[in-house]
Amino acid sequence: MSSLEELKRRRELLDKKSKAILSNMDMIIQENYRVAEVAHNAGKIIDDLDKKFDKLTKLNGFDISFLFFATALQCVRQYWLSNEKFRFDKDGDASKVLKKTMPKSYSEILLGPVPYDAFKKSDDFRSTYINTGVSGANHRYTVLGHDPLLGWIFGTLNIITDSLTKNNIMLESYKVINSTHIDAPITFPALIHECSQQVQNDYKILIVAVTRQALHYGTDAFTKMGLPIPIVNNLSPDLTSTLMKNGIDLYGITRGATLSILINTIIAAIHGLYYDNKFYKNRDVYEVKTRKILSYSNLIATTSNVIYVAMNSAMGNELALRNLDVGGMLVTIYRLINDYQFVRRVKEEFVFGGFNKLIEGEEYKFEDV
Prior knowledge:
By secondary structure, the chain is mainly α. It contains 15 helices and four strands.
């Protein structure tokens, strides 16, 4: 090859490389212009993405039908299953049901009367004229053995020591005869000492006492008097008394909350079946609509329930409070908080994720140099 041809070949190669470099530089410059344009219009782009998200997750006619259906189910649950429904008249009725499923020997041991159910005085104690403040009408919330939380400690202690302990700061306690009659005052430290001695002598008595406490919870929870609401009972026994008289107790609240959650779960499952991945590329975006349906239906049902109870109470209906859906109210509060956080997270991912993709652009396709 002559030097002239070699020189020509090198010039063509250099020209090719120069054009490739210039093309790559132009690509970078154009990309910089594009990024600068995106950054300059960042506010408008984010607003557009925000509006796109709202439009994408807006409830349409199909979703509204789910909303009304869910609301109707919640309202029917509130009034068809009011707080006083589906309860035993007395704890003895619940015990009879349990006794049928247990051997007689165990039922006699574990389903006998508990000492903190006693409210009548023994003959000797009656002559002292000491007022215990415990009666058949108030013992569910004045005695700690019935407290759904503290009862595991105090109720078990009372069962082991044949005693009862009142719900006050002094932990006022009394010995009980045959689990039926209050006999005499006893200091709480003395009860602890007696309990520790019995457990040291026979540890199985603790197991039996805890089991008996659990079974007693099971029988009391479904009676008309029910079990008091934890913490509320310790802060205000008077408020607990008013609530329990209207069926607003541990069972009533738990039942209402459980049924509310069940309805929400069914609605969410059915609505989720209509997810279309061709229209919603992200499953979470579609779930935003589902969550809106649940939050709105729960909020409407709870608001209508509170208004109904308030208006009937104002009109003198003393039984109106029985329809107050405290369990559903707690579920509504949880949904509003939890769903709001979920929607906010998904929206942030949608808006800022979309903006970041615009900033990133497409991958450079440089020409070989």
